[in-house]
Protein 1
Amino acid sequence: MDPVAVIVVAFWAMLPAYVPNNVAVLAGGGRPIDGGRTWRGDRLLGDGKTWRGTATGTLAGAALAVALNAVRPSLSPLFGAELVGFSAPVVLAMPFGAMVGDTTASFLKRRTGRERGAPFPGVDQLDFVVFALLLSALAAPSWFGSTFLDPVWVLVAVLLVTPALHVLTNAIAYVLGLKDEPY
Ligand code: CTP
Ligand code: MG
């Protein structure tokens, strides 16, 4: 695979994991998952992790995966690359994994004394990717292997391109007034 095809394939495969966090920012709010509970004086997760944000984010990512399956046959020849399809377990594992990663990061932020909205460089940019990959690897091991490890450059591209995309989309959301912080 040439480098451009590797990036196209990686971006396509990760789309269902990219969308949930952004949808949660737009549609989230309401009752926090931790119900206000604290642990050792700090919130378990904080007010930034809500049921509505998690549910709408996961559903939006799953709906996108289903939509991508539908347009895949006509788009693959256009990009000159074999765009991967999303089976039922993957349709859920990618977006839900992204939300689990984001929530895990908030848990770690609270344990390390970071207030809601405080940056956690590195973790903020990769939490959702790592967990989306982890959950999809557990839900569909052979799909994970053929998509991200064959060739392994697809996984490398995901880990390099995602942080850059994350920084860019959050900066845009900040400028548009959708997010309180630019990260
Ligand atoms: N959001 C939500 N539910 C989620 C994730 C996000 O409702 N599972 C919404 C919240 O309104 C949140 C906003 O999206 O404030 C921005 O998300 P994020 O940056 O992940 O949360 P923060 O408020 O920065 O909190 P934290 O420090 O815990 O990341
Ligand atoms: Mg934040």
Protein 2
Amino acid sequence: MTTVTDELRSKLRDLLGAEYLIEGGDSLESLSKDFYWYSPVLKRQLDDKRAELVARPGNLETLRALVAACHDAGVPVVPRGAGTGNYGQCVPLYGGVVVDLSRLDRILSLDDGVARVEAGARLGTIEAAARAIGWELRCLPSTWVKSTIGGFFCGGSGGIGSITWGGINAPGNVKSVTMLTCEASPRLIRLEEGESLKALHTYGTTGLMVEIEMRLAPKVDYDQLIFSTADWDRLLDWTDAAARRGDWRKRLVTQFQWPIPSFFKPLKKYLRDREHATFLLLDRAQADEVVRFAEAAGLACVYRQPLSDPPKPPFITDYTWNHTTLWAMTADPAFTYLQSGFGRNFREQFAELHRRFPGEILFHLEWTAGNAKMMRGNAVALNPDAVVVGGIPLVHFKSEARLNEILRACDELGVFIANPHTFYLEEGGRHPNIADKRAFKSEVDPRGLLNPGKMKTYEHNPFAAEVAAT
Ligand code: FAD
């Protein structure tokens, strides 16, 4: 589908300069894509989708002029950070212009425990700068080295740190976001505290996020620990208890079912054959006590490394969250994944899924702080009852029909699934405030040009007819 006219092309060339307007070649192809291919369903649906142009504005004024020009020409505008999203979030469905925001990457201030940054700043850069002055990010995805904070807020949900601080939408984590509208004269709209929720995790459909204020946590010096045993239930009991220990300062609690640990080739010399493993990131001052506690429960501590400061590899986080899926797909491309939240009866849910789909599901579990009213300023009081067992189980893909059968079984068993096999916002997670998100979109994107087609319940999509016909 062609939406960009020669007139718009030459206008954008003048505005950005040839160096920052990508009009073809491998770069246009790769900057049109993300990690959608984790899903065999999205791979089939999105493989042939690409932008007509990729623009890389270097400041807000250029971005504003670029958006105004696209608005006047009526072409799709698809924001992009580092392109590490999983659901084709920044893959344009109808061509148009991908707006790469990674050059808007300044750290504006790090005062009083708040990071004020441009949206294209990398999380790894913010984390290192914050740690240098005694702070750290409250939560970050396992792609933190590369991904941008704007991409995390618009496409991600949580990850490392969420065991203590919850996800991006947990109360208090986000102080404000500033959105640029897609109008003839684009405006800036600043949303504070709870108001910002209507712009979070909206895949770039509710404006271009240009500035963010995120509250930080006091820095902790961490040890990276791995525990191992062949007894799944013993490990599960211990890990769940560890996750709920409010007095242990943790940043990561992850458990893998064998053979998942065998996929982590760089850790081969530490991990034991046929044993399940738990990965913890924990306050160094408490590590001796935790190792003693684990050994008393019959677990072996097979790995212990301090996390260096400033952060430098090795990072055990490189094997957790959605990185696990990447290691699995590298070992066997037939793997795909689910994103799930289990109930208090998680042990029964695991057993029933294994019974119904023998050999098809491998459990990769991540513990997070649920919706807890746990934060007061920078103080945390983890409520053990609010800790949630979730995770990103691996699925040995057989067919789309079989995948749908697994999704239906999860639904029947009360396992929540944020479906990673759809590019529709509404199907990819919980959106209790979708009406607010839709209303905000109509305010900032009256012509329906922002990442069109991703917000399924937004009525106005000027490109839908063409796609239905293809
Ligand atoms: P992109 O992929 O570039 O964009 C994501 C979405 O946000 C797109 O819809 C895009 O249009 C929109 N967007 C980007 N920037 C802006 C902006 N400034 N304004 C408006 N819209 C914008 N996610 C997690 O939450 N937790 C994890 O632990 C995690 N682990 C991952 C591990 C792997 C190996 C992979 C491949 C993905 C993982 N993800 C995870 C998903 C993804 O990496 C993160 O959400 C990441 O923070 C996205 O940032 P990005 O800069 O790459 O965003």
